[in-house]
Amino acid sequence: MNTPSLAPALPEAPAASFYEAAEKIYPREIKGRFATRRRWTVVVLLGLFYGVAWLRWDGQQMLLFDLPARKFHIFGLTLWPQDFVYLALLLIMAALSLFFFTALAGRVFCGYACPQTVWTELFLWIEQWTEGTRSKRMKLDLARWSVEKLLRKSAKQILWLSLACYTGFTFVGYFMPIRSIGSELMNLSLGPWAIFWIFLYSLATYGNAGYLREQVCKYMCPYARFQSAMFDKDTLVISYDPARGEPRGARRRGSDARAKGLGDCIDCTLCVQVCPTGIDIRKGLQYECIACAACIDACDEVMDKVGYPRGLIRYTTEHAMAGKRTHVARPRLFVYGALLTFAACTIAYSLATRTPLILDVIRDRNTLYREVHGDWIENAYTIKIINEDDSGHVYRLQAQGLDRLQLAAPGNPIEVGPGTVSNVAVRLQAPEGVAHGVHAITLRISALDDPKLSRTEKTRFIGP
Amino acid sequence: MTAHKLEVDDGRDRRHRVLIALVLWPSFLAASVASLLFFAAVDPQLLRDAGPMIFDNLNRDAGYALGFFFFWAIAALASGLSVYMIRTARREDQSTDGGGRRQ
Q1: How would DSSP label each residue in B5-22?
Q2: All domains of chain A in start order, with CATH
Q3: B12 — contact with chain A (CB < 8 Å)?
Q4: ipTM of predicted complex
Q5: B10-54 confidence digits (pLDDT tens)
Q6: Do B43 and A87 touch (CB under 8 A)?
């Protein structure tokens, strides 16, 4: 029996060949439960992408990875490059979520949320709107150039290009303040690098969503290749039920297919026509399948028409197909879930206890020590105070760890404005009698107006 | 599978695809990660101040872009070498039909 297997496509499947002249795929338009769901996901995700860039929070862009200023604004929180650990944790969480949902529900990400899918869907809508249904599009491509063909094709190109440019602009707007690059664009005073990145991302959108489409999933996507490592026999996959469908074959309406020895598949090939990656789901599960469920919608509609029960192609698991029980709760899911929870808690805890203040101490490397006032030993340091807070503070600097240690810092307490870095030259002095050898000492800064706002750093004091 | 397919059929179209899908694309991904990690720790402006004079007129944006393309080029070199090594390797399973075929 043709049980679904995760082995890469069968040898005769042309889709697996890398060098086949890629045939253009004309996905057939589809209506149904999953198509509706997918349409809504696309609308919501694209709405978020195009909309969030313009939202503001506390007078700042709500989500802005401001690369020119090297500051990240996330929901009113300002993160600095020194806070990279949060970004790293967020990325780890994203990866773990992908693992978790893949193990649970297969390639839901591919079919519904992947930017490649989402923008391809949007570009397909435009294509359907300007060039018509699948059969019309195929005819139009074969037809000789005419006024109608020219109009339809150029309407599509204009819409595609404008959408691609706007997408590129919005994307760059998450890395440079979108309002200022917007007004600079209007005044034609946009910097060369901003133009370059907008152009590059517009081109990528246009090419990926307009032309490459399923080829990105088939040939370029690493996730498509390694997702099978997260699959097991209880993972939700889209599968054709060969036990019920085979042997497939056309039949007259109302004729007794059972008597003729036929299964439920009427071989209408609609499941192939709607497939955005151009595979035949009836050949078993293939890595080209992005789990968009378009074939389920198509097959259900046909089953309704011929009066057979739905679900010849359906969401199922390998265990269910083999007539065994499907276990939703299984160790793999608990492990992914636990790691995910741990990462989330770590982020939440460290953000909640985060002090928006950083102290860096660098010992003067040129001289170990020098003698001053006859019998005192002096060490020099440069300290860097980074005030990550949105308001300015005055910090008092203190040194500890050695008897009669004295601090000579100009302008102590030190004022540091909101979101700025201050470098201060600091000298520490101790009597020669206690300064022999190497001593571990601590430097501490604390805000005068908020004692909780403090940082302590260790450094060394070196004597003769 | 990929290595095997690389031996079958030739053509300019194919070579372009290998270049894009197996060399430029993976190195693009690697360069993105490298840029993210590198520029999280290093401010391009500091590099400019420490580097040779020809960089003096560049701003931070240019620094990011140059860094990214530098990483991309290096990663593409690695990917390209890998593809080249696979393509020119003697293949065990072809030793029966006239020894290791070379391209």
Answers
A1: HHHS---HHHHHHIIIII
A2: 232-321 (no CATH), 357-462 (2.60.40.10)
A3: no
A4: 0.72
A5: 556 666 777 777 888 899 999 999 998 898 888 888 877 777 767
A6: no
